[in-house]
Amino acid sequence: MNLLNVKNLTVRYERQAAVEDVSFSVAEGDYIAIIGENGSGKSTLVKTLVGLIPPTSGDVELCGITRAQIGYLPQSTVVQRDFPASVTEVVLTGCLGGRMPSPFYTRAQRRCAEENMALLGVTPFAKKSFRELSGGQQQRVLLARALCATEKLLILDEPASVLDPVVTHELYDILRKLNEERGITILMVSHDIHCAMEQAKTILHMGRSQLFWGSVDSYRETALYRRMIGSCEPEIHEHDHHRHRHAAHTAEGGM
Ligand code: ADP
Ligand code: MG
């Protein structure tokens, strides 16, 4: 069963198209990584999926879920990191389903927040101020918040971009567990192709238009993938990531 059907989606800012004629479906249980160069339309695409930007043309069809039931972790900004509220308050806002923050939460909402804080190991910081936490702790809190909104679909925009490698691994372990053990469908924007290939089942490679959509195994066979990782290299090492990213070009030629 599909949770989302995206059909011929085009999104323009003023006159420039950021996303052009993109079509794919999000099947229940899938783990999708959206990859592509900076400026290739990844964030615009996920913002449109969660309803923050209207499509210019085409459709985003939701099946059996509402927009409020999508857990969304936006690409981080400094402003969000400085949010003056306690960890518990931040997590609880995930229960609101898009409504205004309220001092009154139901017992069920509080229980949901407590469960997700425990799941992500942030219960010890429950009463602390969000902005006093480290980047990795904040990201876990924001993930707990996103989980309060959903049992089904998490959409994450570069969740690891603010994290160091160790914490990044922890975060990916958590995401994989949520996908495998809880059956939560994951759609994650990632700038790290190697992590994306390791974690995800399905790849969407954006270059304004959709350059590839399909399984990780079939993506591995493409010239696009070989260009991404630098085709002469027999083996990819951790410390080579940076160089490979710079060697990579999309078929669109440097959006
Ligand atoms: P990515 O997340 O892949 O880096 P974005 O979706 O953020 O890409 O951006 C895609 C293109 O749209 C870029 O050319 C970017 O400059 C442009 N863009 C993004 N946000 C806006 C905006 N709010 N107004 C105008 N142009 C934008
Ligand atoms: Mg982005």
Beta content comes to: 15-25%
Unique ligands: adenosine-5'-diphosphate, magnesium ion
What's the tally of helices? 10
Decide which structural class fits the backbone.
alpha/beta
The number of domains is 2
Walkthrough of the structure:
The protein is an alpha/beta fold. The protein is 35% helix and 24% strand. The protein has helices at residues 42-49, 78-81, 87-92, 107-119, 135-149, 165-182, 193-199, 216-220, 223-229, 241-247, and strands at residues 2-13, 16-27, 31-35, 57-62, 70-73, 153-157, 185-189, 202-207, 209-215. The strands form 2 sheets. The chain has a 6-stranded mixed sheet with strand order 5-6-7-3-8-9, sandwiched between helices. The protein has a 3-stranded antiparallel sheet with strand order 2-1-4, with helices on one face. β8 and β9 form a beta hairpin. The structure holds adenosine-5'-diphosphate (ADP) and magnesium ion. Magnesium ion binds at residues 42-43, 75, 157.
